[in-house]
Structure formats: C-alpha cells, structure tokens
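ESCALATION

Customer reports they have been waiting on this structure for their group meeting. Please prioritize. Original submission:
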Amino acid sequence: MTDKDERLTEKQEEKGLKALGKKDNIIKIVVLVGILGIGLIFFSSVSRKQQCSEGNNAASDNAQSIGVEEYRRQLTEELGSMVSSIEGAGRTKLLVTLDGTVRSVYAADEDISGRQSQKDSDKDEQNSEKRTCIVIRRRDGSEEALMIGQIMPRIRGVLVVCDGGDDADTAGRIKSAIASALNIPVTRICVSKMG
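Update from on-call: job pushed to the front of the queue and completed.
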C-alpha cells in the first residue's frame, strides 16, 4: 500500500466515524425526545386527573347540597319576583309542584361490542354493552363515583295567586312569562285572583 492509499483509507475511516457519530447523535436525540414525550404525556394525565377530581369536589358538593325542596324554593322565589314585577299583577303568591326527584348523572366508560354474521338470508346480530362507572380515589383513600351533573325534577304545574289574577290580559302575560321561563305548556299554569 502506498502513502496515498493509506491517506485515502484514513480519510474514509474518519468520514465513516464522523457519519457514525452523527447517526449515534441522531439516535440519542430521537430517544431523548421520545422519553420527554412520554414524560409529558404521563405528567399531563396525572395533573388532569388531579384538576378533575379537585374541580369535581366543589361541583359535587354544590350539586349534592340541592335537593327537591331547595330546588322548588328557589324556583318559587325567582318566579314570585318575576311575576310580581309584571304590570297589573300586584301582590303574588306562587306554588310550584314537581314530578319526581333530583337524579345524579355519573361519568362512565362505555364499551360496546357487536357480532354480526350472515348465513344466506338469515341475519344474526348480537350487541353487548358494558358500562363502567368512573371512580375518584381521594387522598384519604375513600372512593366516590365521578358526578358530572344532576337532572332536576320535571315541573308538574304552577299556581299563581295575585291581585290582578281576574284580569285576562294580566293573567295571559303571567302565563306567557312562566311558560317561557320554565319551558312548560300554558295548560300547566293556573292564575287566580287573590282574595
């Protein structure tokens, strides 16, 4: 081998080592980015669960504190204030009747799987649904289902007794206002004159 051949071989080896070093650096960078990505995903899921459970503590405490009687009282107060401000109504008293109770709605995972098969003209379909309630584990070790809301009872009817209840126009305005506010038909609202 000549000096020229040896120098060429050395240069090729140096280029190969530099290229190999660059590939090693690229691999190291890709692995590092992957590890950082996994870490961020893990951190975000942990912080999201903490935020969710902390946020739901306040929400579930507020939501659970309102019962049927409290809901009816709030409706009666708000409607009474609104109706008494309608022209011609005068002094007012209200009675709101409810149908049912407050129902809680809980977060759940749903797994729906199905199987279908066809033989000539016969159809065989079978679906199964699995619903699992999501549970929050608190710092003290207790567990509770994750409540996402409540469904208030349906309004059965409203009775309004007021000074202007014998005037058809006033009674019509009161019925229209209550029907719009509560999204109930006018047939569920009764307006009478106060005696």
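Sent to customer with the following note: The chain has a mean pLDDT of 76.
Escalation resolved.
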